[in-house]
Design a protein that fits this description.
By secondary structure, this protein is of the alpha/beta class. The protein contains twelve helices and eleven strands. It binds NADP nicotinamide-adenine-dinucleotide phosphate. NADP nicotinamide-adenine-dinucleotide phosphate (NAP) binds next to helix 11.
Length: 288
C-alpha cells in the first residue's frame, strides 16, 4: 500500500518510521537503532520522520539525523528513502522549547543538511509555531530556503486549521504533522484531516499508537483486545490499520526503539478493518 505525498509526485509506503525513540531519553544502543532502521527498510518502508531535536539536549542536536544518514549509507538506501525533518525547536536541558526565529531556522536547516549528508531536504517541516515570532516570519524563511534549493517541500507540524489556511494563502503546504491516535482524535473532530484530504495535503499523524508513554492505553482497551483477537493482529496494528482506512492522504509514522515493534507495525499494511470496526474506534474518543 502506497501514499503519494500530495502534489509532489513522491510515492512512499503507507507506514513510515517515526525515528524519535532512537535518539531521545531512554534511547537504545547504536546497534539496536541500526537494527530498527534495517528492519523497517527490509520490510519495504521508505519514509522516515526525524527532527534535528530528536536528541538528548542542545549539546546533542542532530543525533537522529546523523544516525539515519549513517544507516542509509550502511544499507545502501540513501536514494530510495524519503527523510522528512523539522526545525523550529530547541532542547535546553532536555526540554522542548519553540524557536521560530528566521535566522535560527536558517541555521538549523543548514545544519540538518550537513547532518543528513543531503544536498536538499525533500520535506522540511516547521516543528511548531513560535507564539513569540508568529507563523509568517518562520514561513517566509522556509519559502526562502525552498527558493534557495535547500528544501524541496514545506510541511507544518502542531498546527491548527486557521494557521494552515493562513499558510496556504502564501505558499503550498504539502503535509501537516499533528498528534493523533485512537484516544486523541481532535483533528478528526475539528475537520482538519478532512480539510487536508480535500486540499491535497498529506496528513501525518504523530504518536499514532498513543505516544511515547501513552501507547500503554492500547493494552487497557477492551475494544482493542476484541479487535486484536478478531483480526489475529496486535493492538498496535489495529490502531495503524484504522488510520489507513481514513483516506489515501493519511500516512502514520509509528515510533520504535525495538526492531520487533516496527516489524509488527508494518503488518498493518495488509490489514483491512471492517467498516463497523473503524466506526467503533471512531467512537472511542466520545467515551469519557
Ligand atoms: N511533530 C511532533 O511534535 C512530534 C511529536 C511526537 C512524535 N513525533 C513523531 O511521531 C513519531 C511517533 O511518535 P512516538 O514515537 O512518540 O509514539 P508512537 O508512535 O505512538 O509509539 C510509541 C511507542 O509505542 C511502541 N510501539 C509502536 N508500535 C508498536 C508495535 N507495533 N508493537 C509494539 N510496540 C509498538 C514503541 O515502543 P518501543 O520503543 O518499545 O519499540 C514506540 O516507542 C515519533 O517517532 C516522531 O517521529 C512528532
Amino acid at each position: 500500500m502506497q501514499r503519494e505525498i500530495n502534489g509532489t509526485g513522491i510515492r512512499v509506503t503507507a507506514i513510515g518510521l517515526g525515528a524519535m525513540p532512537l535518539s531521545i531519553q531512554g534511547r537504545p544502543d547504536e546497534n539496536q537503532a541500526f537494527e530498527v532502521i534495517q528492519t523497517f527498510l527490509e520490510g519495504g518502508g521508505d519514509f522516515i520522520d526525524t527532527a534535528n531535536v530528536y536528541c538528548l539536549d542542545d549539546s546533542d542536536i542532530g543525533h537522529n539525523e546523523r544516525l539515519i544518514a549513517r544507516a542509509l549509507d550502511r544499507f545502501g538506501k540513501r536514494d530510495e528513502v524519503v527523510v522528512a525533518t523539522k526545525g523550529g525547536l530547541r532542547r535546553p536541558q532536555g526540554h522542548w522549547v519553540t524557536n521560530g526565529d528566521p535566522a535560527f531556522l536558517q541555521k538549523s536547516c543548514e545544519q540538518s543538511l550537513r547532518d543528513l549528508k543531503a544536498e536538499r531536504i525533500v520535506l522540511y517541516q516547521l516543528h511548531a509555531i513560535d507564539s513569540n515570532v508568529g507563523l509568517m516570519p518562520s514561513l517566509e524563511m522556509l519559502i526562502r530556503l525552498r527558493e534557495e534549493g535547500k528544501i524541496a517541500h514545506i510541511g507544518l507540524s502542531n498546527v491548527d486549521l486557521d494557521s494552515l489556511r493562513t499558510a496556504l494563502t502564501h505558499t503550498p503546504i504539502v503535509s501537516v504533522q499533528n498528534r493523533c491516535n485512537p484516544f486523541e482524535q481532535r483533528d478528526f473532530q475539528n475537520g482538519l484531516i478532512d480539510y487536508c484530504g480535500a486540499n491535497g495535503i498529506t496528513y501525518i499523524p504523530h504518536s499514532p499508537v498513543g505516544g511515547h508513554t501513552g501507547h500503554a492505553r492500547l493494552q487497557q482497551s477492551a475494544l482493542f483486545g476484541r479487535l486484536a483477537e478478531k483480526y489475529e493482529a496486535s493492538r498496535y496494528c489495529i490502531a495503524l490499520a484504522w488510520f489507513l482506512a481514513k483516506g489515501r492522504h493519511v500516512l502514520p509514522i509509528p515510533g520504535a526503539s525495538r526492531p520487533a515493534s516496527i516489524a509488527d507495525s508494518l503488518r498493518a499494511l495488509t490489514l483491512s478493518l471492517d467498516e463497523d470496526d473503524v466506526r467503533a474506534i471512531d467512537r472511542l474518543s466520545e467515551s469519557p
